[in-house]
Give the backbone structure.
Amino acid sequence: MKLVCDRLSLSDALTMASGVVASRTPRPVLLCLKLAAKKSGSAGSLQISATDGEIGLVVTVPNVDIKEEGEALIPADKLNQIVRACDDSTVSISVDRTLATIATESSTFKVFGYEPREFPGVRRPSDRVDFEVDAGTLRRLINRTIFAAAREDTRYAFNGVLVDRKKTQLQLVATDARRLALARASCKGSDGDSAFIVPTKALNALMRLLTDPDAAVKISRDGAQVTFIVGDSASGATLIANVDERTFPPFNDAIPKDHDRRATCDASELGGAIRRASLLTNEESKGVRMSFNGKQLTLTSRAPEMGESEVRIDGVAFQGEPIDIAFNPTFILDVLKIIDSEQVVIELKGPNLPGAIKVGSDFTYVVMPVSLR
């Protein structure tokens, strides 16, 4: 295999693919990227494949000068480091069996790899498309939900995000049992419904592919796997991931529907107030009390042997009877970081019942209160 490629284009593709490579594995080939150089008339392309056994990714680099078609299997970390460290405009790669030579005008590196046939490969996706959504919309949906998924949890399917489509309505849902995030948008889809759980690692890898907000993302479920095709076949990427076969908890039952108190707040002002109030909290007293009364919101916190704080916000549009309720400040700040609205609506029922933070009709965040002594 011999080729000459634009260095920045190659670096971007390697960064995307390296996000899928296994961090720890007894199989050295899973620490590698498979390169496949192909000619098509006068044009050439380089396909870069990566897999950790559960997630597979193929990224295509277009407009590559292919001197000789072929394949190579090269350790991902070294290839990525070399291409990023060089500052030349182009990089050439030639491979003789398992020895790869990576060269620029001023540098030459020789890296030992493996036989390409040892790579387990990435399954070829089917031609069927269940539904389609633009990359900008999908990125927003993922960003609004993935933070609420559990980091490590063996219960239900809390380590993933539910992708739930009903005809042309798409919603993503994530929960860790203490909070729940639900985001909605429209999509292009065929008749019928589909629902599956995508692990957070696969969605993090997918987020790195969604750089062009106008790019089309075609999504299809095939048995125990889901395929995301981003962009066109000439310069796009294909991500294939195993779906979580466990049952997602009945999330609709967790969304309160009969709140009788409603407050509209400036999102930035609320975030700043919570950050200040949380300065005097600790692990034993991890909560900020929110007191809604008329047009004023008062936030207080207290920690033994540390002290206490009080922060006030005026001009809050509040409807309903006064209420005191406490939340983990981290859970509130997490959602305020990801919404793209100047104002948020907080709906409450009682001091011991979950509250909801909403942005329009397409985002709902439910969070359990905490008890303060």
Notes: Residues 198 and 212 are 22 Å apart (CA to CA).
